[in-house]
Amino acid sequence: MKLKIDAELKKKCPRTALGCVTALADAGASPAALLEEMKARETEIQKLPFPRGVLESPQVEATRKAYRALGKDPARYRGSAEALLRRVVAGKGLPQINAVVDVINLVSVESRLPIGLYDLGHVSGDIVFRAGRAGETYKGIGKYDLNLEGLPLFADAVGPHGSPTSDSERTMVTTATHHVLAVIISFAGSEGLGRWVQRMAALLTQYATAQDVEIQVVE
After folding, report:
1. Which of 14, 38, 57, 216 is deepest in the core (most CB within 10 A)?
2. Whole-model pTM above 0.90?
3. Cα 21 to the chain's mean position, in Å?
4. Homologous superfamily of the 3-218 domain (CATH)
């Protein structure tokens, strides 16, 4: 499986970079130590003098700018990192799903960057990160059918399966998943991306018994 950024998307969003981690991992229940780390990050944000300031971070602003460049309203289609940060600021906390998903959500909140997460057992062929085309849709995880036109998205040989807003049910990670791909999506360049990829790989190893871990930054 190869992952590349579409040339047309790169023209409109020239600083796009992707930090990728593939691994064999256990998507079972999150251990207590991971839940404690999640709670600690929530508390750190809530104790800031102005917690809502995290919603104006450069990473969040870069995602909004990219959506506008592709013709999508970022107030209607929020990046997943912004959505998670809004939950934390509102006191709702991070959702607790399974060890793999919880690690990804933790790193997303820490980095302020959206992260796509995919079961490679349900991905067909290579993946391209491109803008959605007219008429393209998929059912988002726990959501309605998503209008993908103009939305930055990941597509394999079957079609679109993920985006910085919401991933699809087709390639979602469940307790039956063994082979995962996590992709950190930056629209502000690759600087610092390596750090977050390493962080994600380390947490997956620690909390989801990840093996055969491979990391890559795509620009």
Report:
1. 38
2. yes
3. 11
4. Phenylalanyl-trna Synthetase, Chain B, domain 3 (3.50.40.10)
